[in-house]
Amino acid sequence: MIADAPARTDTATAPLVVTFKVGRQTYALPLDAVLQVVRLPALTVVPDAPPTLCGLLNLRGTFVPVLNGRVILGEPPAADLTSQVIVLGVGVPTHSLLVDEVDAVRRFPSASFAPFVDGSALVLGLLRDRDEAVVVLDPEALAARAVSDR
Q: Read out DSSP for 1-19?
């Protein structure tokens, strides 16, 4: 009896993602939606802003809304000097997300992705990583949240 060869995963077609932490959970965003990552700078305060909006980031003269990832993802609000901001957009910055820590740019095997059906509008799906599930967020849904929270 010959054992089956292990299934080959085609990582060349698997999308790249940026993984990050908010609280104890690991999340991801598609790399093609991420323009850059910056340390938490001083933000321009927006009076009467909703709790999901931390303020505005002055990015080389362009003011970009900074969404509070902790509030959006159900964690208590908190930020410190180690917090980071993921700037999102295609070509030009449109919004950004305050997170606890950016981990890495990673490529997961295509077979590890499971679409998230009938769940949160912010979630595209889950990536399986050993014993952990990485929640993939929808950058367009975050953009819609940025616009509606202004």
A: -PPPPPPPP-TTSSPEEEE
* E strand residue ranges, the chain: 16-22, 25-30, 34-39, 53-59, 62-68, 84-88, 95-99, 101-107, 113-115, 123-129, 132-137
- pTM, two decimals, is 0.85
Q: Which domain holds residue 42?
A: 16-148
Query: Residue 120 falls within a domain, yes or no?
Result: yes
Q: Residue 63: which CATH number? A: 2.40.50.180
**What is the tally of structural domains in the chain?**
1
**Over its length of 150 residues, how does the chain's per-residue pLDDT go in tens digits?**
334 434 444 444 567 999 999 999 999 999 999 999 999 888 999 999 999 999 999 999 999 999 999 999 999 988 888 899 999 999 999 999 999 999 999 998 888 888 877 767 899 999 987 788 899 999 999 888 766 655
Whether 31 is covered by a domain: the verdict is: yes
